[in-house]
Amino acid sequence: MADQKFVLAGVMGWPVAHSRSPVIHNHWMAQYGLRGAYVLLPVQPENFEAAIRGLPALGFAGCNVTIPHKVNAMKMMDFVDPVAKAMGAINTIVVQPDGSLHGYNNDGFGYIQSLRDAQPDWRGDAGPALVLGAGGAARAIVLSLLNEGAPEVRLVNRTREKAQALADEFGPRVKVLDWAERNDAMAGVALLVNTTNQGMHGQPELAVSLAALPEQALVSDAIYIPLETALLKNARLRGNPVVNGLGMLLNQARPAFKAWFGVMPEITPTLRQVVIETF
Ligand code: NAP
């Protein structure tokens, strides 16, 4: 269409070459017949503020921000969405018509949506959740589970103080346990989530026993390389429903694409395949 706008977006990080976001967004642009480009924006920390401030002048609709800029970017925004504020980090910037910058964090949305894609009737208030890990992914996941009405989130991290810091921030529904208690803590949960890097390609497997886990509990892993971690395989073999981390990765991109391009995109089997082929 001759009158259709050419929309520019990208992902700003350092390093950023590994990002799958260009594959995802450029796939959707082609699928929906939109004109634009989503590019890698390798920006060193010392140049980050200048790069962010340059977005409106360059005509960008916005960008994703990733490591190491996710926390720093918050203070450069004219507006930060309350969910992102609670998470303490943004992953999406939307340039407004007047050139001001709005920051969002869609990781929690992506996580919850990935559970709903696997189990359409999934409910956050179905029972306690056990979250392993207390890093960046855990922040987004714990907060989104609380927002979905989880009655209790048991939080277990190798470094207990980091879990305690999250609990202090997020309130009394978050119960901190020792790393050594992680297997016993599975009793009676409706959801088990791994947000540690254990089980990721190049890392050792997550050392857990699922003996105490109810058979109907949903088991999810934030990891997407490999698609089936040892945790998910063991859970599947004993009959638990499982969700891998690919759905979170793909779903977090959807609200950003909607904000920049005006279309809420769908996750198709073809998109999944295109992304899996980059692993
Ligand atoms: P992070 O902030 O660096 O946190 C890493 C977590 O792993 C911490 O809780 C850390 O515990 C724990 N850990 C590291 N080594 C461990 C060990 N040997 N034993 C037990 N725990 C250990 O990383 P992140 O950004 O949260 O990412 C975590 C995982 O989530 C990664 O695999 C990442 O690929 C995945 N992720 C997926 C998505 C998605 O869209 N699917 C999004 C974000 C992240 P300590 O505090 O004790 O160090």
Number of strand segments:
12
User: Which compounds are bound in this model?
Assistant: NADP nicotinamide-adenine-dinucleotide phosphate
Q: Please estimate the helix content.
A: 25-40%
Largest sheet composition: 6 strands, mixed
What labels describe this entry?
279 residues; alpha/beta; Rossmann fold; 2 domains; six-stranded mixed beta sheet; six-stranded parallel beta sheet; 9 helices; 34% helix; binds NADP nicotinamide-adenine-dinucleotide phosphate
Can you give a write-up of this model?
The mean pLDDT is 97. β5 (92-95) and β6 (101-104) form a beta hairpin. The protein has 279 residues and is of the alpha/beta class. 34% of the residues lie in helices and 19% in strands. It folds into two domains: 7-107 and 248-276, 3-Layer(aba) Sandwich (Rossmann fold); 120-240, Rossmann fold (3-Layer(aba) Sandwich), CATH 3.40.50. The strands form two sheets. Strands 2-1-3-5-6-4 form a six-stranded mixed β-sheet, sandwiched between helices. It starts with 6 loop residues before the first strand and ends with a helix. The protein is globular and about 55 Å long. The protein has helices at residues 21-31, 48-58, 82-87, 107-118, 136-147, 160-170, 230-237, 246-261, 269-276, and strands spanning 7-13, 36-42, 60-65, 79-80, 92-95, 101-104, 129-132, 153-156, 174-177, 191-194, 218-221, 242-243. Residues 107, 133-138, 157-159, 162, 195-198, 200, 222-224, 245, 248-249, 252 line the site of NADP nicotinamide-adenine-dinucleotide phosphate.
